[in-house]
Amino acid sequence: GFIADTASSPLIVSNLVNIVSADFFHLGFTEYASVMVPVDIAAIIATLVMLHLFFRKDIPPTYDLARLKEPALAIKDQATFRTGWIVLLLLLIGFFVLEPMGIPVSAIAAVGAVILFAVAKRGHAINTGKVLRGAPWQIVIFSLGMYLVVYGLRNAGLTEYLSGVLNFLADNGLWAATFGTGFLTAFLSSIMNNMPTVLV
């Protein structure tokens, strides 16, 4: 989970915070990725080092491969599995090629989702209705709630205060702005989640 979140940070579509940030600063998919790749490499290395140091005593030096199930047994629908790889490749190409032409990333992702859903539904091996019902639709409600929270914080003066702090850090040089902004956002994210922190 940790490394998956970290490694996907150059992709705008990897989480809602990236989407909101890129949209606010009018960053395209390619531009966002080019800025975040060096940051991502550093974050992956730091995450791997910390995970190894923390869990090194729990990691066995060897394990019996015979105890593992065949990977093919985890695939319920071969057609959907193969289509998924094709869709992922086409999505990646589409994000880099079509997005600069003015086609929204959301539209590209939606087309890919519809194709994959249609293939899965046709195969009948996957309960697509159950997949839809089990989707985290509550994230939409959560996002709307966060907007309301942020508007309340803005009306209370927090946004203006934080703006002053960030301007102060920027006036004191690159290192002060970089570390100051990093520590400030990390602190706010730890007490009220990273989504409202970005919105504020």
UniProtKB/TrEMBL annotation:
The chain crosses the membrane at residues 32-55, 79-97, 103-120, 132-153, 173-192. InterPro entries: Arsenical_pump_ArsB. It is found in: Cell membrane. Keywords: Cell membrane, Membrane, Transmembrane, Transmembrane helix. One of its GO terms (cellular component) is plasma membrane. One of its GO terms (molecular function) is antimonite secondary active transmembrane transporter activity. The keyword Cell membrane applies. It comes from the Bacteria. It is a multi-pass membrane protein. This is Arsenical pump membrane protein. It comes from Yersinia enterocolitica.
